[in-house]
Structures are given as C-alpha cells and as structure tokens.
Amino acid sequence: MPKMNLSHFEASFLFALFTSVVLGVVTKSTDRERLQYGAYTFGCFLLALFGIGWVMYLGHG
Questions:
Q1: Does the pTM exceed 0.70?
Q2: N or C: where does the chain have the smaller number of CB atoms within 10 Å of the terminal CB?
Q3: What DSSP character marks residue 53?
Q4: Which residues make Cβ contacts (< 8 Å) with residue 42, sequence separation at least 6?
Q5: What is the pLDDT of residues 1-60, one digit of tens each?
Q6: Domain encompassing residue 35
C-alpha cells in the first residue's frame, strides 16, 4: 500500500471535511439541514485554520 505524504494544510483540510460530514449527518434530521450544517461547520473549520495559522505566523515573528 502506498504511503500518503500530506502537508499540514492538506491533513487539516481533510480533517475539516470528514468531521463536517460526520457532524452534519449525526446532528440534523433532514437532508437540507445536514447539507447546510455540514457546509457551515466546514467553513468554520477553514476560518479557524487560516485564523490560527496567521496568529502563529505573526506571533513567530
């Protein structure tokens, strides 16, 4: 089996995607609510990813 060599961003992106899908499926009852909540949580994950990344970049400095 080939090994996956992911960057930190790629791994964080996949975590956000899979976690958002699971949260959408588990917490909501209709398909429309699931899709909306999944997209919302995915957006929040990405916003947090970029926000924390910039804080770390500026704080390292």
A1: yes
A2: N
A3: H
A4: 16, 17, 20
A5: 888 899 999 999 999 999 999 999 999 999 999 999 999 999 999 999 999 999 999 998
A6: 30-61
